[in-house]
Specification:
This protein has helices at about 5-15, 45-50, 60-70, 95-115, 125-130, 135-140, 155-160, 165-190, and strands at about 30, 40, 80, 115-120, 145, 150-155. The chain is of the alpha/beta class and about 190 residues long. It has one domain (about 5-185): Uracil-DNA glycosylase-like domain (Uracil-DNA Glycosylase, subunit E). The protein has a 6-stranded mixed sheet, sandwiched between helices. A hairpin with a 2-residue loop joins β5 and β6. The model has no long low-confidence stretch (mean pLDDT about 95). The structure holds iron/sulfur cluster. Iron/sulfur cluster binds near residues 17 and 86.
Length: about 190
């Protein structure tokens, strides 16, 4: 049980729970607004993220920034993290035992931040958060309510860089995220009246 994100990060920085500790340059804990109502979760750090110790800083990260801007958010409005805190070599998919070893940190982050909305970026993040196989092209954009969180799978920005044809669907998902956020904002404003 953790009392702060700082405590979780301290454990991540010295973590040796899986083999990825041997090849990482830096751990990538996550960053953003620790009271964010929206949490974005990707799969794991890539090369640029491993070098800088920050999530989504490469080309995909720049696209993610543009995606957020398109719905009037910036990084300070959200919290961004990954399923894995260390880079899988060559950007291979995470292995099940790596996810099992690491996902407790994400759960701890989620419990401390307590977002209303969790956006799963890509198939891998979606399947581990929703605990089921996900076909991202079929199930993106669909909201599920799980344990009080509203969760939506959508495309990973790196996939959008490879498949320009998915941008229209991705934008529809972004608008849906904005709408859901505004619904919560309206609800909490009303409850304060
Ligand atoms: S990926 Fe997660 S479990 Fe594995 S060493 Fe890094 S922090 Fe620890």
């Amino acid at each position: 049980m953790y009392n702060s994100l700082f405590e979780v990060n301290s454990d991540v920085e010295k973590c040796t729970r899986c083999q990825l500790c041997e090849t990482r340059r830096n751990t990538v804990f996550g960053e953003g607004n620790s009271h964010a109502k929206i949490m974005l979760v990707g799969e794991g750090p890539g090369r640029d993220e491993d070098e800088m110790g920050r999530p989504f800083v490469g080309k995909a990260g720049k696209l993610l920034d543009k995606m957020l801007t398109s719905i009037r958010f910036n990084r300070d409005d959200v919290y961004i993290a990954n399923i894995l805190k260390c880079r899988p070599p060559g950007n291979r998919d995470p292995q099940p035992q790596e996810v099992e070893a690491c996902i407790g940190y994400l759960r701890a982050q989620t419990a401390l931040i307590r977002p209303h909305i969790i956006v799963c970026l890509g198939r891998i993040a979606s399947q581990h958060i929703l605990k089921q196989d996900i076909r991202i092209t079929k199930e993106r954009g669909i909201w599920r309510e799980v344990k009080g969180f509203f969760i939506m799978p959508t495309y990973h920005p790196a996939a959008l860089l490879r498949n320009q044809g998915w941008k229209r669907e991705s934008y529809a998902d972004l608008l849906s995220i904005r709408k859901k956020y505004d619904e919560f904002a309206g609800t909490s404003a009303n409850s304060e009246e």
